[in-house]
Amino acid sequence: MVLNEDSDRLEDEAGLYCKQMQHLQGTTVPKFYGLFSGTYINMSRKTRAVRCIITEEWGTSMATVKHIPMELRITIAEAALRIHAAGVQHNDLRLTNILISSDNSEVRITDFDNAGEHDCGRAMPVILYSWEPTLADFGCQEIHDFMCYFGLWTPDDVFYLHRWHSIHLSSTAEEMLENAKPDVPGEPEEQLLAKADAVLKQYTKRYGARFPFIGPPGSPIEEGTDAASFARLEPKVIGLDRLEKCRKPVKTHELAA
Length: 257
Ligand SMILES: [Zn+2]
Prior knowledge:
Elements: E1 2-4, H1 7-18, E2 32-41, E3 47-55, E4 60-61, H2 70-85, E5 88-89, E6 98-100, E7 107-109, E8 116-117, H3 135-138, H4 141-149, E9 157-160, E10 163-166, H5 173-180, H6 189-207, H7 211-214, H8 226-232
Antiparallel strand pairs: 1-3, 2-3, 4-6, 5-8, 6-7, 9-10
Helix pairs in contact: 5-6
The protein binds zinc ion (ZN).
Zinc ion (ZN) is lined by residues 84, 118, 120, 122, 140, 142-143.
GO molecular function: protein serine/threonine kinase activity
Organism: Phanerochaete sordida
Keywords: Kinase, Serine/threonine-protein kinase, Transferase
């Protein structure tokens, strides 16, 4: 139940459930039972108006989940993509607003009080583990942020000696040092190489299992052509783009008074 005195926002939220997301109720978002109006008597014995949205009580919040397995992250990403494909941007997509079933197999995205209509500008498929595209190439901020946050893309930069370096241009310790040299005059080269090596080892430990799919860092990627490189390196892994845009007209049901 969402209780709110901001009537306009409640109506907007109810509208999204009834129109854009009607076909997602019970699979991607909780079932929507209605927008209700009523009165209550407050502590000062005055009658006050109240409105609330009632949705299905479902699952538990992910806010307390410490480790989120990759399969579950994919399930959440697919739910977020369905919502965007339906023409809605959540605007507050965090763990508190994601519900999970007891067996971890299903999720629902909830709390649409900040959400709004959205003409998704996503310009490319969302492909698991692919090199992280630039926001400009990708075209949708919320999904881009989400994919980065959940580690579903492979970041293409590493932090070394005070700044970020492209892993493609600094895929060996020697290259990394060469690119960073202007930042660290005077430090012994051996020490700097050891640091670069440690950074690369940590990166490989975290992302190395993905290289067979996306090519190792340093595979030829032309600067400034991210979209083209992305397409060329399209990995043979699970695609999240099997979701079709679903803008079919939906029935609007009456809001309960
Ligand atoms: Zn979008």
